């Protein structure tokens, strides 16, 4: 699970990556394992960098457009963590993170 994916998007962000775990700020439930490329504030989660959990991967694996993307919610307390967006520059689907809705730690 700890294998880092590298491709042109990684390179575009300086080549460094780290694995993060995001938890719900309300209840502490773990929401998502995520590979962040490059440095800077975590504003969005690209679907192709989400590493787990399995249920979340299952719910997004068949998603290819914003209109069929679900919101990212805590499966424990239903808090809203992220909403669907397209990062136009790269035409990549992502969740725009709701500020203050999560805490994160580096693996
Ligand atoms: Zn929660």
Which descriptors would you attach to this protein?
107 residues, mainly beta, Metal Binding Protein, Guanine Nucleotide Exchange Factor, Chain A, 8 strands, binds zinc ion
Percentage of residues in DSSP E strands:
35-45%
Number of domain units: 1
Instruction: Write down the oligomeric state.
Output: single chain
Structural class: mainly beta
Total helices: the number is 2
- How many DSSP-defined strands? 8
Please estimate the helix content.
10-25%
Report the span from N to C terminus.
11 Å
CATH fold annotation: Metal Binding Protein, Guanine Nucleotide Exchange Factor, Chain A
Explain how this protein is built:
This protein is mostly beta strands. The protein is built from two helices and eight strands, in the order αββββαββββ. The strands form two sheets. Strands 4-2-1-8 form a four-stranded antiparallel sheet. It is globular, with a radius of gyration of 13 Å. Zinc ion (ZN) is lined by residues 24, 26-27, 29, 74, 76-77, 79.
Short synopsis of the structure:
This protein is mainly β.
Please render the helix and strand layout as text.
Blueprint: H1 8-12, E1 17-24, E2 30-37, E3 44-46, E4 50-52, H2 54-60, E5 72-73, E6 80-87, E7 92-97, E8 102-106
Antiparallel strand pairs: 1-2, 1-8, 2-4, 3-7, 5-6, 6-7
Bound molecules: zinc ion.
Zinc ion binds at residues 24, 26-27, 29, 74, 76-77, 79.
């Amino acid at each position: 699970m700890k294998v880092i994916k590298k491709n042109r998007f990684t390179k575009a962000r300086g080549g460094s990556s780290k694995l993060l775990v995001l938890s719900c700020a309300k209840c502490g439930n773990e929401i998502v394992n995520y590979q962040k490329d490059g440095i800077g504030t975590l504003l969005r989660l690209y679907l192709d960098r989400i590493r787990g959990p399995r249920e979340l991967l299952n719910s997004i694996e068949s998603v290819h457009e914003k209109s069929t993307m679900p919101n990212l919610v805590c499966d424990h307390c239903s808090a809203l963590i992220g909403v669907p967006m397209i990062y136009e520059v790269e035409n990549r689907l992502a969740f725009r993170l709701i500020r203050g809705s999560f805490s994160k730690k580096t693996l």
